[in-house]
Amino acid sequence: MFTGFLIAITIVCFLLILAIMVQNPKGGGLSSTFGSSAQIGGVQKTSDFLDKSTWTLGGILIALILLSSLAFNTGSNTGSKVLTGEETPAMPTTEISTTPEAQQEAVETATETATEEAAQ
């Protein structure tokens, strides 16, 4: 199901790119090529048609993205533990002392270990 949404999103993106590329930012675009009296697909003003199709395709794209995220979340086996009420065991905490004496002892232990490994 998620793959279907991805294919539909790709097609809508391609159509949206085409609709945007055909438009002219100055207002001419495809309509200036054919004149104002030309009819393309029964639409008299192609700029209005392209504008409406751009907004429609954008809305469809947003809807498909939202629906695909819902399909992606419902298809996964790992649900939210907050929603299901399952408790996770707490991780054991280790306390690290930052006193100068503890730091010096850690350095001496590391030095002794390194010396023993080098001797072997």
Automatic annotation (TrEMBL):
<feature type="compositionally biased region" description="Low complexity">
    <location>
        <begin position="98"/>
        <end position="120"/>
    </location>
</feature>
<comment type="function">
    <text>Involved in protein export. Participates in an early event of protein translocation.</text>
</comment>
<keyword id="KW-1003">Cell membrane</keyword>
<protein>
    <recommendedName>
        <fullName>Protein-export membrane protein SecG</fullName>
    </recommendedName>
</protein>
<dbReference type="InterPro" id="IPR004692">
    <property type="entry name" value="SecG"/>
</dbReference>
<keyword id="KW-1133">Transmembrane helix</keyword>
<keyword id="KW-0472">Membrane</keyword>
<keyword id="KW-0811">Translocation</keyword>
<comment type="similarity">
    <text>Belongs to the SecG family.</text>
</comment>
<feature type="transmembrane region" description="Helical">
    <location>
        <begin position="54"/>
        <end position="72"/>
    </location>
</feature>
<dbReference type="Pfam" id="PF03840">
    <property type="entry name" value="SecG"/>
</dbReference>
<keyword id="KW-0653">Protein transport</keyword>
<keyword id="KW-0813">Transport</keyword>
<feature type="region of interest" description="Disordered">
    <location>
        <begin position="78"/>
        <end position="120"/>
    </location>
</feature>
<keyword id="KW-0812">Transmembrane</keyword>
